[in-house]
Amino acid sequence: MTKHEFRIVGKSVKRQDVIEKITGEGRYTGDYHLPGLLSGKIKRAEIAHARIRRIDVSRALAYPGVKAVLTHHDVPRVLHYGSPHPRSASCTMDQYILDDRVRFWGEGIAAVAAVSEEIADEALDLIEVEYEPLPAILDIDAAQAPDAPLIHDVGPGGNLVIPPVHIERGDVEKGFAEADLILEGEFSGGRPVPTYMEPNVCIADWDGSNKLTFWTSTQTSFMVRGALAEVLGLPLNKVRVLVDHMGGGFGAKQDLFQHEFLCALLAKKCRRPVKMEFTRRETFLAGRSRHPFRLWLRQGFRKDGTLTAREMKIVYESGAYGSHSPGVTNVGTASATSLYRCENVRLDGRAVYTNTPIAGAYRGYGVVQTYFAIDIQMDEAAEKLGIDPAGIRLRNAVREGDIAPSGHPVVGYGLEACIRHGIRAFDWAGKRAADRHDPANPAIRKGWGIGCEMHGSSAYPGIKEQGNAIVRMNEDGSVTLLTGAAGLGTGAHTALAQIVAEELGVPFETVSVVHGDTDVVPWDIGAFASHTTYLVGSAAKMAAAELRQRVLARAAEKLQEKPGHLEMVEGVILVQGQPDRSITVAEAMGPSRGIPAEHLVASGSYMPTKSYSFAAHFVEVAVDTETGIIECRKVMPVHDVGRVIHPVAAQGQIEGGIQQGIGHTLTEDYVIDRTTGRSLNAGLVDYKMPLSMDMPDIETVILEAAPDPGGPWGAKGVGEDPIIAIGPAIANAVYDAIGVRFHHYPITPEDVLNGLRRKAAESSARD
Amino acid sequence: MNKIHLEITVNGEARSMMVEGHRSLLDALREEAGLTGTKKGCDVGDCGACTVIVDGRPVNACLMLAVEAQGAEILTIEGLQPDPDTLHPLQEAFMEHGASQCGFCSPGILIMAKCLLDRNPLPSDEEIRFGLSGNICRCTGYTKIFDAIRTAGRRMAAARAQSVEA
C-alpha cells in the first residue's frame, strides 16, 4: 500500500448523527405520529406448545374503540423465512404470520388495533383462547431424545433446524496419535439477550394506490421490504421502508418479529395508519437471544503446546423457530477450524428446535460459544504443559496463509501482534507473578486471564454480499452520499462520510448522508456481520473516486488544463505545480458557457470476500470467596482493525461489546422455566446487565497491524469482535484467582461458592 | 374518559393540556406536548431513558402521573441547550467523547448528568457512577459517558470561575 497522508480518515470527527441524538431532535420510529394513527397490540400465548382449538374475538371486537382484530383465520397463510436474508444458507422457512399452533410461550396469536394503546391492551384480555396442550420440549436434550415429538413439520426431522454441519480437514486420528496431551471437556452457555434500548416498533400506512409505507426499527430495511412484499403479495415498488434513528439492534433487529406483518394488515383492514410498539417485556418474550448451547471439545497438544488435533461437537438451541440458526450453526462450527491453527479438525454443528423463545442473530453470531470453549481449554493445556497461557496462544495463533473459517487463506493476520502488544502493555508477566491476595480485603483473590478471537467482516461465504453507494456532487459543491446501510448507533454513516470526503478531496463537513428510505437509497443487504465500513465503505470509496474524475474533468474544461494535471484538496481544485491556478469545487460545478449548473453522480458496487479482524483481551478479576461475586476490575482489549476510520467510534464499539460480554459471562441469562416454558425474568431489573456501577476500567488499544486489501485503506470490521474474547478471558482469570474451572456462562456467585466448596472437599479428601 | 386540565411549565414555556388521569408524565410530554426527545425504554422505571427534571429533581417520567406534575417546572432534553445555537457543555462533551452511540439513552443520561453537575460540579468517578446508576446504556460500556461528564464538569467549573473573576 502506498504511503497516504490522511486528512479525514483516522480522525475522530464529530459524528454527524450525534447532534440530533443529544438535543432530542433525532426521530426514532416511535417518535413519529400520523393523523388518525391507531395503536396495535399483540395477544401472546401463555403456553409453550399447543394447538389453538378455538379463538373467540367477538368480545374484543365489540369493545368500544377497537377497530380490528386479526387471528390466524384472518391473515394470509404464507410460510415465510424467519430471517429475511436473501435466499442463502442462513435462512429457514418455518414461520406463518399467525398459526393455529403455538410453539413458545409469548408467541403472538392475535392482534388488535384500537384508538388508544390502553383500549388495545384491554381488548387483548377479551380474546378467549382454548388450547389443546402439546408436550413441550424445553431443552436441547429433550429435543434430541429419540422419541421427541416434532415441533415443526418442515426441516430434516429430529427437531433439527438444518442437516448437521460437518467439517473435516486433515487426519484427526493421526493428529491425536501425535499428541503428548489430550484434553476433553464439555461446555455450555445460557441465553443472553441483546437488550437494545429502543423496543421494537413499527408504523404502517397504506395510500390510495395500495402502496405501503412502513417505518420500522431495523438493521435490514431492504430485507424487511422483501419479506413484506413477498408475504403480502406486493411488488417491491409498493413497499417503502423507512428507518430514521435506531436505538440499537446488536444483530437481533435483522429479523421480522411478527408485528411487522400484523401492523401492515391491521392498517390495511382499518384504512388508517397503525403503530405497534413492543413493551420492554415483549422485547424479551418475542425478541431474539443468543443461542444457548452444549459443546464437547477434544484437543491434542504436543509438549511444546502445538495443537495436533481438534474435535468438536456443538448443539445450538434455536428455540421455536429457525431464524438465524442455519447461519449461526455454519459460522460457529466453521469458526472452530481456526483462531488457533490446527491442521486436523473434525467438527459437527447442529441446531435444534425447542419450545422456547427464538434465538437469532446476536453480535458474535455462533462464535462466542465456540471460542469460549476453545480458549478455556487452551488455558487448561497451558497449565498441564507448564507453558504460559499467552505463550501457548502465540505458538498456535492463526497466521498469514492459514485456511480461514471461510475456507480461503487468511490475508493479513493481526492476532500475534495483539497478543504481543497486550503482554507488554498489560504487564502480563508481572501481574501473573503478583500476589493473588488483596491487602484491603482478605476474602478477595485476584486473577488475570487472556482470551482471543478472530471474526470476519462480511457474512461471506454464507451470503454473497454486495455493498452499494451513490455519491452526488451538487451544483454548489456540497456532496450527498446515499447509502442503504442502517445507522444502528455505531457511527457507520460518519465513517462512510469520512471515506467519501477523503477520497473526493473535499472537507468532511460538506458531505451529508441520506439513508433509511428504500425508495431512494441504493439497495443494501443490511447492517450486520461487522461489514458496513468494510463493504459499504469500499463501495463509497469507489463511487467517490469515480465522482472525483468527473468533477476534475469538468474543472479541466474551465481551467483549460488536462484532468490528469489537477488535484482536489479540501474542496479546491489545483493545477499541480501551479498553486496560483485553482478553482473551488463550487466554481467547477457552476454554470458553464451559458449552460446551467448540474449535479454529477457516481455509484459504486462492491462484492467482497472476507477479511478477519483479531483481538486479544487481557482482564483482571477479583473474586470474593465469601460472597462468590466476581468483579471484573480491569480490561485491556487489544484489537487489530486493519485501518481505523474513526478512532473514538471504534473504541466505542469495543467498549460496548465488552460491557455486553462481561454481562453474558457473569450475570446475564434470560431464564425459561424448565417445566412450563414460561420466562422468569423478562425485565431490566431481573435480567441483570452490567451498568455504571459495575463497569471496569477499560484501556482500549487499537492496532493497524494487518490492513486488508478488500477494505477502504485496509479497514476491517470491529462490531462483533469485542464480545467474543472477553468471556474466556474472564473465566480464565477466575481460574487464576481461585483455582476453580468453569465451563459455562454465566458464572454466578452461587457457582463460585459451590466450586470453592467442591475444591475444598477434594483437597481435604486428598489429605 | 374524564380528562383533567393540566398546567405545567416545560422548558420555560407555560403549557396547558387535557390529560387522562392515568396518563404518565412521559406520555403527556411525548404525546400531548409533542416533546419526543424523552424516550420510553421500559415504561416501568427500570432504564432511566425518560429522566426529566421536575422542580429541580430528576424523575423517571414514566413513573409519575402527569397530574402529579400539576404546576411544576419541568426540564426535558429539548430544554437543555441554553439557546438554539449553543449546546450545553454536556452536549458538547458527549459529541467529543463519543458518549452517545445509538442515542436512545442519551436524553435521560444528559438530564441526569445535568442534575449531578448542578449539585456537585466536580464529582468524583464514584459519584458519577453512582449518579448514573439508574440509567441503562447498552452501547458504550459507559467509559465515554464518564469521560464526557468529567470534561463537562471541569469546563463548567472553569467557566464559573472565570465569570466570578470577571
In short:
The complex is a heterodimer of chains A (767) and B (166). By secondary structure, chain A is of the alpha+beta class. Chain A contains 19 helices and 31 strands.
Describe this structure in words.
The complex is a heterodimer of chains A (767) and B (166). Chain A contains 19 helices and 31 strands. Chain A is of the alpha+beta class and 767 residues long. Among the domains of chain A are: 18-25 and 466-606, 2-Layer Sandwich (Aldehyde Oxidoreductase, domain 4), CATH 3.30.365.10; 416-440 and 613-767, Aldehyde Oxidoreductase, domain 4, CATH 3.30.365.10. In chain A, the strands form seven sheets. A seven-stranded mixed β-sheet of chain A has the order 3-7-1-14-11-12-13, with helices on both faces. A six-stranded mixed β-sheet of chain A has the order 9-17-16-15-10-31. In chain A, a hairpin with a 5-residue loop joins strand 20 (467-473) and strand 21 (479-483). Chain B has 166 residues and is α+β, with helices and mostly antiparallel strands. Chain B is 37% helix and 16% strand. Chain B is built from five helices and five strands; from the N terminus they run E-E-H-E-E-E-H-H-H-H. A five-stranded mixed β-sheet of chain B has the order 2-1-5-3-4, sandwiched between helices. In chain B, strand 1 and strand 2 form a beta hairpin. Chains A and B meet through helix 1, helix 17 and strand 29 of A and helix 2, helix 3, helix 4 and helix 5 of B.
Shape of chain A: globular
Number of domains of chain B: 2
Helix-residue proportion of chain A: 25-40%
Radius of gyration of chain B over all CA atoms, rounded: 16 Å
